[in-house]
Design a protein that fits this description.
Layout: E1 5-10, E2 13-19, E3 33-34, E4 44-45, H1 75-89, H2 95-108, E5 111-114, E6 134-135, E7 148-150, H3 159-168, E8 172-176, H4 182-189, E9 192-194, E10 197-198, E11 204-208, H5 214-222, E12 226-229, H6 231-238, H7 246-249, E13 259-263, H8 266-279, E14 283-286
Parallel strand pairs: 3-14, 4-5, 5-6, 7-8, 8-11, 11-12, 12-13
Antiparallel strand pairs: 1-2, 1-14, 9-10
Length: about 290
């Protein structure tokens, strides 16, 4: 890690990476300097994935669902998704190969940092993620704080305890309101501790958030929370995404309401990458 450095980019490719005080390559003496004021990672950063499942074929979703409690119990999901992962996750001779495969798959898509290393059928699978892709949940680098994660919904009676955990985190990735009905919205309301107190702060990044209403986004923004937009799974399973209702919620016209951290899943990351490459200049210094 270079605490303070400069990256030299020519037509979308990194030419050199130097300490900030080092002299620049001759061909970059007159190019513009972009000061990021942040941390730069090589490759794309993926903020929503369930990595082990990337060994399976994409599920041909048979119908529209209104919240995530509905599809795990159907026969087709057990046959094609949860059943195979139960077998693979409990087969010690398969797990190392599974992890290397899904990491290589990420790299081929341009992803060098990902998220999502839990597997219900194998709580010990985390230890196998020590490979070729950096993971935000266990970075193994003292200068890179790890993100905390939670897939299960937060119950209203646990909101205060969850907030205590949230305040200790550097970043907390929470699957939040994955659905479009009142059941999904209720999971956001469960973050209310008291009338004007919520288990939300700037460490919280909610994944999905498809069940949030306009007033909920106001609260999320007021408390400095963030959202990770996951269009691929939202559209496949729910047939609706947060942006579809932007005119109703004012999201399109008032982005200060909350922070949109990033798109989730590889399809959207690919689009983001193409957009960035298309906008890059012939030469640039990024600090």
């Amino acid at each position: 890690m270079i605490p303070k450095g400069t990256i030299y980019i020519d037509r979308g490719s990194i030419v050199a990476v130097n300490e900030a005080q080092a002299s620049c390559p001759a061909e970059f003496e007159d190019v513009p300097v972009v000061k990021t004021g942040g941390t730069i990672y090589p490759g794309l950063i993926e903020l929503h994935n369930h990595l082990a499942y990337n060994a399976l074929c994409l599920w041909d979703v048979p119908k529209q669902y209104s919240n995530r409690d509905q599809w795990p119990g159907i026969p087709a999901y057990r046959k094609l998704i949860s059943g195979p992962m139960q077998i693979i996750g409990k087969s010690p001779e398969l797990v190392p190969a599974l992890i290397r495969y899904v990491e290589c798959k990420s790299l081929l898509g341009g992803v060098t940092t990902s998220h999502g290393i839990q597997l219900f059928s194998n709580a010990g699978i985390r230890r196998f993620y020590r490979g070729i892709v950096r993971n935000v949940e266990q970075t193994d680098e003292k200068d890179l704080p790890e993100a905390d994660t939670r897939i299960a919904d937060v119950e209203a009676k646990s909101a205060s305890r969850f907030f205590e955990r949230l305040q200790k985190a550097t970043c907390f990735l929470l699957h939040l309101s994955e659905g479009v009905d009142e059941t999904a919205n209720k999971h956001f309301q469960s973050l209310r501790i008291a009338d004007e107190k919520w288990a939300i702060n700037e460490q919280l990044a909610g994944i999905h958030c498809a069940g949030l209403k306009e007033k909920d986004f106001d609260i999320l923004g007021k408390e400095k929370g963030a959202m990770i937009w996951s269009p691929m799974s939202n559209l496949l399973l729910l047939w609706r995404n947060c942006k579809d209702q932007s005119s109703k919620r004012g999201w399109g016209s008032n982005r200060d309401r909350f922070r949109l951290v990033a798109f989730g899943e590889q399809e959207s990351f690919g689009r983001t990458q193409s957009s960035l490459v298309g906008q890059s200049s012939d030469g640039v210094c990024v600090q």
